[in-house]
Amino acid sequence: MPPVISRAEFGRTPSGEPVDLFAISVGDGLTLRATNYGGIITALSVPDRHARTGSVVLGFDTLLPYLENPCYLGAIVGRSAGRIAGATFLLDGKRYHLNANAGRHHLHGGAQGFDQAVWRAEAFRDAQKAGLVLSHTSPDGDQGYPGSLQTTAQYTLTGRLELEVLFQAVTDHPTLVNLVQHSYFNLAGHGTTILSHELQINADRYTPIDADLIPTGRIEAVAETPLDFRKPTAIGDRIDQANAQLRRGAGYDHNFVLNRAGEGLAHAAHLTAPTSGRSLDVYTTEPGLQLYTGNFLEPSRTAGAFGARTGVCLEAQHFPDAPNHPAFPSIVLRPGLTYLSRTVFRFDLSR
Known about the structure:
Elements: E1 4-12, E2 18-25, E3 31-35, E4 41-47, E5 53-55, H1 64-67, E6 75-77, E7 83-84, E8 88-91, E9 94-97, E10 106-107, E11 120-125, E12 130-138, E13 149-157, E14 162-171, E15 175-176, E16 180-182, E17 198-201, E18 203-207, E19 220-221, E20 233-234, H2 244-249, E21 253-258, E22 266-272, E23 278-284, E24 288-292, E25 313-317, E26 332-333, E27 339-349
Antiparallel strand pairs: 1-2, 2-3, 3-4, 4-5, 6-16, 7-10, 8-9, 11-12, 12-13, 13-14, 14-27, 15-26, 17-20, 17-22, 18-19, 18-21, 21-24, 22-23, 23-27, 24-25
């Protein structure tokens, strides 16, 4: 079956700017629905073991709930994912002050980050694959970041129950870049929690957080902690243990240092929902994976649709607050270089 693509108006922003919704499928049972508002993936439909198809990400059918999306459901977040302490960083001897949208800290690119931009969008297809190319230019000074940043995000369905997310960016001035696709997965479908999902993360270490959910700068072993997901473990097994890290995050909200052997795609995580038979493998070029178990999802923040722990984020990224910790992998992008980040979400079924 050849790829199928449709495009329809999804609504308009408060300023009257039109927003489109794309539906893309390649005949393997995987269908992507995404909008050029924030690059949001509104649905990702996958069959279960009984051949019943349903979305495995949290999302809405209309634009309105996304216009105020404090939980970043399905969105591209940037310029820099995660928190930056004190909303400030030093680059080449100059101190920059970012928009403080999480108390005194900067979160996910600021109050008007990439998740709220209307991206230019074009669908594409050939005999084997289809997808969507999104592009956005963030001007110099946007949310406090230096330099004009030209960004491209590409979603590709490959015909193997696989979604590839490719980010590229160039700048005219040294700046920070750390982009993330912020979908909340629930492989059992809507209306359930993710506590029975079994998760494995290919990481021996993680970056502990302080009371403001910001990395302390240390890198510690997961062994003998509730953050040890080196073997498949139900997310709910230890999430409420009396542990300082879990108390600070109200559950899991931690960056894992992925085990890597060189560059290129590395296996980051395996997620399974026993009830549906669906599984998800995440492969990435990134050094870290942020595990967030939807601890702060609540109906008042999700248009009445989703409560706490009904979705889990597996955010392939560089480490949060990287510019304030020299030992962390750098997120500085300089003119003449290209930021490149590739993550593959591969689904499968157990019988």
